[in-house]
Structure formats: C-alpha cells, structure tokens
Design a protein that fits this description.
Elements: H1 3-58, E1 68-72, E2 75-79, H2 86-99, E3 106-112, E4 117-124, E5 149-153, H3 157-163, H4 166-226, H5 228-232, H6 234-264, E6 272-276, H7 277-289, E7 296-300, E8 307-311, H8 312-328, E9 335-342, E10 346-352, H9 360-364, H10 387-398, E11 401-407, E12 411-419
Length: about 425
Amino acid sequence: MANILIRRLIVLGGLSIIGIIFVQSYWLLKTWDIKDKEFDQSVNIVLRNVAERMSKFNKTVLPKEDLVQRKSSNYYAVNINSEIDAGLLEQYLLQEMQKQSLNIDFEYAVYDCSSDELVYGNYCSNELLGDGEIKKNTKLPKFNNLIYYFVVRFPKRESFLLANRNMTLTLTVLSVLAIIFFLYSMWIIMEQKRLSELQKDFINNMTHEFKTPLSSIKIAADFLANDNHIKNDTRLHRYVQIIKDQNLRLNDQVEKVLNVAQLEKDSIQLKKEVFEINDTLSNVINNESLKLKHGNIAFKGTSEPVFILADKLHFVNVVANMIDNAIKYSGNEPKVNLSLKEDAELIVLSIKDNGIGIDKENQKKLFEKFFRVSTGDVHDVKGFGLGLFYVNNICKSHGWKIQVESELNVGTEFIITIPKHNEI
C-alpha cells in the first residue's frame, strides 16, 4: 500500500474516531440530562400529590410558591404548613411512587419544631435487603427558611438513571470496542507495511548485488568458451556451456525480480515507440526456439505489416515470458502456436500451447504475485511465480486486455487484445 494511502487512512480514521467520541459523548450527556429531567418531574408530581393529600387530611392550605424545593440532585424538601404524621406520610409516599412507576429506594425525615431537628423516618426499599446492606443517612440537612416540612432523599438516583440507559451504554461499549479494533488494525497495517518494506528492500539489494558477479561469470564463461583448448575438449566445452546456460537463466530470474520491484514502486517508465509487430514477434520466437530440444514454436502473422505504439522492451519481455511458460508446462515435446490478427479497431495476439492446462480455480489466481500452478509432487518446473504477474501489469500499463482460456490435459491459450491508437 502506498505511503499516501496509509497517511490518508490514518487521517480519516483519526477524524472518524474523534467524531465518534464527540457524538457519543454528546448523546451520553444529552441522554443523562433528559433522564434527570424526567426523574425530577416524576418526583415533583409524587411530592405534590403527597402534599395535597396531607393538606386535605389536615384541612390546611398549601403555600402557593416553593411547595417542592430541590436542594441537590437527589434531595428534596416539601413545605406543607402543617404538622406531619410520619406513618401517614410514608403510606402516601409509597402509594404515589407506585402510581408514577418510580421503583427506587428513598428515605425521608420530618422536621420537629419542638426539638428543632429533622426526625428520621424510614428507609423504604423495593428490594428485600438485610439491615446490614442498607446505607441509611440519618443526619439529613435542615432548612432554616421552612417551618413545617418533610424531606425525601433518593440515595440510588445515579444507579436508577443508569438502569434505564442500557441501550445507550451498550452502544457506547460497542463504539469503544470499534475504536479499539480500528486502532489495533492500524497498528497491524503499519507493522505489515514496515515488514513488507524491509522485505522489498532486502530483495532489491540482493538482486542488485547479484548483477555484478553474474556479469563477471558471463565474461569468464565467454572467455573460456572461446579458448581453443576448451573447444577441443568435449567434456570441458560441455561444462562451460552449462555455466553459460545457468548464468543466463539466473540473470533472467534476477531481471524478473527487478522488474516486479519497479512495478510495485510505480517507478517503471514506459518508453513507447512505434514498431512493426510481426518482425518483433519473429525475433522473439527465434531466440526462444534456442531453448527447445524437442518440439517447435510456430507463428502465423498478418499479410500486411502491423504497427503498434508500445514499450518495445517490455513487449518483448511479455511475449518471451508467455512462450517460456508455454514451454515449461508442455511436457517433453512442446508445441507453441502464436497468431496475430488485425481488424479495424483491435490487434489480437494469441499464444497457445499443448501443455497440462489450468483448472478454473487456478485461473482466478493466475496473475497473482508468486502464484504458481501446482504440478503435484514433481517439481521440475522452476521459477518464482513472477512471470505472469509482470505480464499482467505491463498489459494494464499499456491499456491492453489479457485473458486466458484453458482446459486440463489439452492446453492453454493466452489472448492479448491491443486497441489501435490514432496517434500511430
């Protein structure tokens, strides 16, 4: 993955995380505020109803203002201007709480004028708890501006509000998990990219280091091959020829690795020129035919010259790679047929062999890097699996279409379709 794409992904991911955190925080606070207001309204209704019932029972008049006063988030005072029966108060509180579906623990106290103290009433709970599990607050604060009043405290207000926000909390947890997963994924991507870069640098350095000794071996092998003593000795001449052949083969593999490295870095530059395709294909076939001990390579060209605009070096490499593959997978007597056709808009190049063929499943992966068609337990087909990856990328770079048609034990045909360009 290109560095610019990694940076864009990190920036977009970071902005997404910030956005998610902001939105989630906003909705959490908003939801808490809404639930708190709903709770306050329900408590006010309960306490007003209780005050009215107490006033009706005592036949007194309630104050017109500040009947119910919220002193803190969970602490309320109710001014009723008359003496209060604690037992009746508790009964009214329980009844009104049940009507409003406020299933929450509360405790209350009644102000005693004679002692100037809040007399603790009771802790009322909807759960069957032992005495040791109830945390009573028997020292509730007084209010000097009130005369006849009672207070109610809700010690479990926070847990009550949270209990009604299960969905919100679930979404919050999922969002946090998603953020953690994203950060972990980004770390994995960066680590994989670092390892991939190390691998590419190692391969590039290694292949470049191979070029110098390969050139030296080639020079030495050519010198030995031209020596008269070597020419007259059949055995030594054969050994020198083996050195030259293997040196050429190794050099070809190094070139393939270098070409693929250039493709991956998008550093390959196409030097397009106009050239005649029939002559070029004939030259490639003549060179590739030297590799054959048995079999043949046939070419059926067009009756008229055909010119294309392309990088000639890469075009030659593409055709040579495909012929080389055809020879490798065609057994002891390969028969490779090349044909060139032309119409008003397209040039079609076909490379067909009589090899082992490729099944449908492997055809999907054929142009992937390092992929090689399995030949069972026999490993007589050598290579890195880079040839067709290179071919596919060069075709894409030129805007050509490449497709494969194959049948097991019959053969394979590669078809390259080249659009004609007006600039030729």
